[in-house]
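Q: Is it fine to ask for two folds in a single conversation?
A: Yes, each is treated on its own. Send the first.
Q: Here.
A: Result:
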Amino acid sequence: MIQIAVAAFFVWCFFKFIDKEGYLDGFTSLAFILAPALIIFFATVLVRASGLPIWVLYLFETSYFLVPLLMLKSMTEFTWPKIIGYSAAVFTINLVCQVAGFVFIATASA
């Protein structure tokens, strides 16, 4: 949950810095991170219960790109390049936060 909060905070900071119109706020930032996290959580339960290999979960990481893409297309009148850029930024910010969290956990437990 801490990783979700940290990633949502950095996504919110990114939107505050980039989105001059103010369409995207903190709740949107949280939704862009929380919805894919819930998708991945339930996918993890299904993968473990069905006995599928764990690498299948890497496919669900794309939800950090697809969920913001679909939400921005339905919520705003942004152009496709702007939507794809924002979605890629959400994916990248989340990926960096995940890696930083894994590194922190690995160094703290060593």
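Q: Second one now.
A: Result:
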Amino acid sequence: MGIVQRGNPKGEVNITRVPSLLSAASGFRIAAEVDKNRRKEMKKSSFKDPKAVAKGIGAALLGVVVYCAVLAPLFKEGPYREVVAETFGTTGFGVGLAMFLVGAVWLGVLAFFRR
């Protein structure tokens, strides 16, 4: 079904549904326009803003610390200090280091392409 807009002498617009092969083509055209607009938004996005990248990596690192210090002791048995030390040693350090390296490489690439 396609949507057809018809105007009348009074300036009103009547919208009716009619079966049409062109409706599929118009749907593809609309999808292409939406994709084009998304690409424009990505060019303006925070992926290329060094401050936003640093803020995002910092938030992720803070999330790792909160997990190790708050959430893990709630779900694991044992003394608080031992659970925090074990969780940070096994999970937190590795994940935090990986996030830090990804952020450093990301900021390095941004600095390289800004020249």
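Q: Anything structural to flag on that second result?
A: Two points. The mean pLDDT is 79. The chain has three helices and two strands.
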